[in-house]
């Protein structure tokens, strides 16, 4: 069986397990606002889905995305998930012989897209307490070259959960402007941060913001995201997009309803997330050898180091799967540091987080006896 067939079969098995506790994909498993469900039902009943959506998205949705980011003058291109937006950006702006600069760890797929476009990927290591587990301006200055075409920053960072200050973001964009590079600010998790600064504010001419509905609103399976930037750059993306007939109508109507209800609904979600982060942090702190390097996380997950407990991340993932709990191994994000940690997603029902805490001590013990964990993806 080909590797991608194995990967698909692995996730198909997970998706068809109705009892699985999903603590591994950063998706939001809290119930959405009731307006979201009603919007989908009304869209189905009205038959609006028989027609293609506007190619850049419904105007009301584009307006709400701009407002959510605090960028009223930016242009928005709605995409079939944030991943499609990143694919379009990397394919359009990366060039053979150029350099795509990002952090290590980061999110893996944009690096694959950049390589496919002919760029060389350069990663700056940030899994280090001496730099606060995030990129510093000194590191960036040491790594940029005349060939740097794109700087890609996931902020808050996936998987570490660190978030940059306004001063740091401005300094990064100043560097990008000096060398003429595009600055891709992946803001997939910004709604979970206590404070967030869009890079577009300082460098609108070549900053592209990546936006997702999978995490904060929980529409992962409905596949909806956006690219936000200057109109000239959105025009370049719009001349040959992967989907020129508009994104899913039902998903867009759900997203509109979610954004309109966000100010009332989302603060409660964030409180529940912080509660889950706290109970998991406390449970981890009681187990010798486990350690949470970044707390509180500014995203909807926690990284838990396993090195001190003498167990492999993959072994702990496998042990928890025996309890019907999915978490993610660090190697999904980074080959360099992946043997150090697992990642636990926590926008989930409190009962799931509590069950993880209950199962964790025995799972750590079981993981110590697993020499050859099964293949994970």
TrEMBL record:
EC number(s) from the headed UniProt entry: 2.6.1.-
GO molecular function: pyridoxal phosphate binding; transaminase activity
Domain Aminotransferase class I/classII large: 19-360
Superkingdom classification of source: Bacteria
Key word Membrane present: no
Root EC class: transferase
Protein keywords: Aminotransferase, Pyridoxal phosphate, Transferase
Coiled coil: none
Cofactor: pyridoxal 5'-phosphate
SUPFAM superfamilies found in the cross-reference section: PLP-dependent transferases (SSF53383)
GO biological process: amino acid metabolic process
InterPro entries with a match to the protein in the record: Aminotransferase_I/II_large, AspAT/PAT-like, NHTrfase_class1_PyrdxlP-BS, PyrdxlP-dep_Trfase, PyrdxlP-dep_Trfase_major, PyrdxlP-dep_Trfase_small
Alphabetized PANTHER family for the sequence: ASPARTATE AMINOTRANSFERASE
Family: Belongs to the class-I pyridoxal-phosphate-dependent aminotransferase family.
Protein name: Aminotransferase
Origin species: Bordetella genomosp. 13
